[in-house]
């Protein structure tokens, strides 16, 4: 779902109207509609006037069928606990209603926020949680400074770990967002009532609605704002203008995904963790969602002069040094990111498990109050179950019924397994001693908050989606899929097996094989068809490929003979390097850049084409895609065959394991024997040096699966 209009509001907790002349520390509203037409910035003197203007704007936009994202620079929620204490539920929107019922905020900005804060303070032991009095006189129950207050709740929300944020409890002084929230939330509550089902507040509500409200923090891109502000522009004005146009310029899917991130109780600052994407969008230097890395240099495949035969490992090293990721980044909902490559480290947003909990069904108690021999503990009323925490404390010497996954109630640190107990419903009996913390899981024993759960470059698989979701990571920055173009060449090739083939013609075997490999490697396979042995035709196909793919694999015509039209063309264009690799099967590998896109000229022979694709193209494509270089993991097995091999080149034999786990090889090494590729389940790799193999000699076996071949 994308947004047609982005509104950014810089709010104010002022007690009197702001000056008539547009000034700082007042309400500013940035409105970005179409990416092309610039952004408006409107000044308002009072919250009342600003809210009226916003209502009118939202109504017009919704009536015109436009979707609106409206962001406000004050907290939408408080640290965990306040809502539950005031409303009986953790739902922040219930707290919105409760505050709206207490706050009075006149059209001239006169308001009772200090009195409401003091009233809330009175409900808690100590003199917190709110503090900060900007008036000359003391206000009973509202500490003047942070130093003289005692807060029963956390000082900050998880998202307020971001630098420069202020606590929601702070009502006076620099950046007193506390006052802005107390005076902003009731206004948003009124908007909710006015727009009803057309409005949702993220991340608390996930419905698709024409109007979406989110919390923002313009300082996330402070440096960019100061770079892009007009000379002499009021900072508040620059912030709303630049942030609104950045959000409007962002990739819609990315914006939608990040607007859903966050904690359902404490809320979230939209864009936290995505500052780079926001900044790029603001600067318009790159389409924000697609930070395109530098292109490869045209001479990246150059080989040192005078090199004759390059050993496989040296060729791989050169390839690795020549290439780097060429793929941009976008943010996807985690659930849709299977097969994609992480573009950043994924950091746990909270610990797993978040709190200590029970690992079994049984009875929980304090270990310190138990000992050896038969233990008989009275049961407290109620129980603790997963999703149904027990609110009370279990006194020392008592026990509570507890089920797997339940948070350990206060007073419980140890659980005895149900099967090891007897109970009559009022007492539970079991044999001591029980080990301290038995049958419990420690908070964070799996992953701790802030730990890197998965590193950049990791390709996401089903279990990774479980891990990320468990850690509250709902969206991930991933590389876009690498587009791999595949082109076959040769006058003898008939493009598809359903077309007739004369005896001098053969059906194209390489293209379906290479396209299938690319798909199996999670790339976007782009079929570039077939070109005859004709320079103009090959040129046209390569040019088409450079527009539609990030890398091109060709097969056929890659050697240096009269009929090797691919290499001839690439050489005329000046970027070809033929790598004479000491490898069997495989003739020279033609490497070139075509209009900025790397071209891997594979041999035409299907056996050699597959081996070169697995050995060279696979790690190269992986590097280009952002997933890093890859090396197949093989293992050593006894040979089930005999072979004498001369020194000087690496050999790969079509192989599979026999019933006894020894490697047998295909009956023929003929490179035209496609049936051997299908017969095989992997390759035996023979080293560059000479070897004499007899049955039982250890050889290195690389299963097809180790090349990601499915
Ligand atoms: P080339 O590399 O063009 O000299 O081709 C070497 C051998 O591979 C020749 O026998 C070609 O007919 C064969 N060949 C080339 N391209 C393909 C293809 N796409 N499918 C099957 N065989 C091919
Ligand atoms: Mg040919």
Describe this protein's structure.
With 710 residues, this protein is α/β, with parallel strands linked by helices. The protein has 16 helices and 35 strands. Strands 7, 26, 29, 31, 32, 33 and 35 form a 7-stranded mixed beta sheet that branches. Strands 3-2-1-4-6-5 form a 6-stranded mixed beta sheet, sandwiched between helices. Helix 1 (47-63) runs parallel beside helix 5 (177-195), helix 6 (222-228) packs across helix 7 (235-249) and helix 7 (235-249) packs across helix 9 (275-283). The chain starts with a strand and ends in a 7-residue tail after the last strand. Residues 286-290 have low confidence and may be disordered. Bound molecules: adenosine monophosphate and magnesium ion (MG). Adenosine monophosphate (AMP) is lined by residues 488, 490, 492-493, 506, 508-511, 555-559, 603-606.
Short description:
The chain is α/β, with parallel strands linked by helices and 710 residues long. β2 and β3 (39-44) form a beta hairpin.
- Contiguous uncertain segments of 5+ residues: 286-290
Can you summarize the main beta sheet? 7 strands, mixed
Tell me the β content: 15-25%
Question: Given the structure, what is the number of helices?
Answer: 16
Shape: flat
Number of separate strands: 35
Blueprint of the fold:
Blueprint (H helix, E strand, L loop, with lengths): L4 E6 L16 E6 L6 E6 L2 H17 L4 E5 L9 H6 L4 H11 L10 H10 L54 H19 L3 E3 L9 E5 L6 H7 L6 H15 L2 H8 L15 H9 L26 E2 H11 L6 E5 L12 E2 L9 E2 L3 E4 L7 E12 L14 E4 L11 E4 L3 E3 L3 E6 L7 E2 L10 E3 L7 H9 L4 E5 L3 E7 L3 E2 L11 E2 L2 H11 L3 E8 L3 H14 L2 E5 L9 H8 L4 E3 L1 E4 L4 E6 L2 E6 L3 H20 L9 E4 L4 E3 L4 E8 L5 E3 L8 H6 L2 E5 L4 E3 L4 E6 L7
Parallel strand pairs: 1-4, 4-6, 5-6, 7-26, 12-13, 20-23, 20-24, 21-22, 24-28, 26-31
Antiparallel strand pairs: 1-2, 2-3, 8-19, 9-18, 10-17, 11-13, 11-14, 12-16, 15-16, 25-27, 27-28, 29-35, 30-34, 31-32, 31-33, 33-35
The structure holds adenosine monophosphate and magnesium ion (MG).
Adenosine monophosphate binds next to helix 12.
């Amino acid at each position: 779902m994308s947004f047609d209009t982005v509104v950014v509001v810089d709010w104010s907790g002022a007690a009197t109207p702001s000056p008539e002349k547009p000034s700082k520390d007042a309400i500013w509203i940035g409105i970005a509609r179409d990416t092309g037409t610039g952004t408006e910035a409107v000044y308002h003197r009072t919250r009342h006037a600003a809210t009226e203007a916003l209502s009118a704007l939202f109504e017009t936009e919704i009536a015109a069928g436009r979707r609106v994202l409206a962001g406000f620079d004050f907290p939408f929620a408080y640290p965990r606990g306040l809502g539950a204490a005031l409303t009986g539920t953790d739902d922040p929107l219930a707290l919105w209603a409760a505050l709206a019922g207490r706050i009075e905020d006149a059209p001239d900005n006169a308001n009772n926020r200090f009195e409401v804060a003091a009233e809330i303070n009175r409900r808690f032991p100590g003199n917190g949680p709110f503090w900060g009095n900007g008036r000359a006189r003391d206000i009973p129950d509202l500490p003047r400074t942070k130093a003289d207050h005692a807060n029963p709740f956390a000082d900050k929300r998880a998202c307020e770990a971001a630098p420069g944020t202020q606590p929601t409890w702070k009502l006076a002084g620099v950046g007193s967002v506390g006052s802005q929230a107390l005076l902003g939330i009731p206004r948003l509550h009124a908007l909710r009532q006015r727009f009803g089902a057309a409005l949702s507040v993220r991340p608390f509500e996930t419905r698709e609605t024409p109007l979406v409200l989110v919390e923002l923090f313009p300082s996330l891109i402070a440096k960019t704002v100061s770079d892009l502000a007009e000379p002499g522009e009021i900072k508040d004005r620059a912030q709303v203008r630049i942030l609104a146009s950045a959000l409007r310029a962002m990739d819609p899917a990315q914006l939608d995904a990040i607007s859903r991130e966050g904690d359902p109780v404490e809320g979230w600052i939209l864009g936290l963790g995505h500052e780079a994407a926001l900044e790029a969008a603001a600067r318009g230097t790159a389409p924000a969602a697609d930070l395109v890395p530098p292109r490869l240099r045209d001479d990246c495949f150059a080989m040192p002069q005078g090199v004759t035969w390059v050993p496989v490992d040296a060729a791989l090293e050169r390839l690795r040094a020549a290439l780097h990721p060429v793929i941009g980044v976008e943010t996807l909902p985690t659930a849709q990111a299977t097969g994609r490559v992480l573009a950043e480290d994924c950091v746990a947003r909270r610990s797993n498990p978040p709190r200590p909990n029970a690992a079994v069904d049984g009875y929980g108690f304090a270990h310190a109050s138990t000992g050896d021999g038969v233990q008989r503990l009275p049961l407290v009323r109620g129980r603790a179950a997963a999703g149904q925490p027990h609110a009370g404390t279990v006194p020392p010497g008592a026990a509570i019924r507890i089920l797997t996954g339940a948070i350990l109630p206060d007073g419980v640190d140890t659980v005895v397994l149900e099967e090891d107990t007897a109970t009559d419903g009022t007492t539970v009996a079991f044999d001591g001693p029980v080990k301290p913390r038995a049958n419990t899981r420690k908070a964070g024993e799996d992953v701790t908050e802030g730990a890197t759960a998965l590193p950049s470059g990791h390709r996401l698989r089903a279990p990774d989606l479980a891990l990320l979701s468990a850690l509250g990571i709902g969206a991930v920055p991933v590389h876009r899929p690498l587009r791999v173009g595949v082109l076959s060449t040769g006058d003898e090739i008939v493009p598809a097996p359903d077309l007739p083939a004369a005896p001098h013609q053969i059906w194209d075997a390489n293209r379906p094989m290479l396209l299938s490999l690319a798909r199996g490697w999670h790339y976007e396979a782009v079929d570039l068809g077939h070109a005859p042995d004709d320079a103009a035709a090959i040129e046209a196909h390569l040019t088409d490929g450079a527009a539609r793919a990030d890398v091109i694999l060709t097969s056929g015509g890659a050697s240096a003979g009269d009929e090797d039209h691919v290499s001839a063309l690439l050489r005329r264009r000046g970027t070809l390097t033929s790598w004479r690799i000491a490898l069997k099967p495989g003739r020279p590998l033609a490497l070139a850049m075509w209009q900025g896109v790397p071209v891997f000229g594979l041999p035409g022979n299907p056996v050699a084409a597959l081996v070169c694709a697995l050995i060279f193209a696979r790690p190269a494509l992986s590097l280009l895609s952002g997933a890093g270089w890859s090396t197949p993991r093989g293992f050593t097995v006894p040979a089930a065959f005999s072979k004498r091999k001369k020194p000087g080149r690496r050999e790969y034999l079509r192989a599979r394991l026999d019933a006894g786990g020894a490697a047998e090889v295909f009956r023929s090494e003929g490179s035209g024997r496609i049936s051997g590729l299908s017969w095989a389940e992997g390759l035996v790799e023979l080293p560059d040096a000479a070897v004499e193999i007899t049955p039982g000699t250890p050889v290195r076996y690389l299963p097809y699966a180790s090349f990601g071949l499915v």
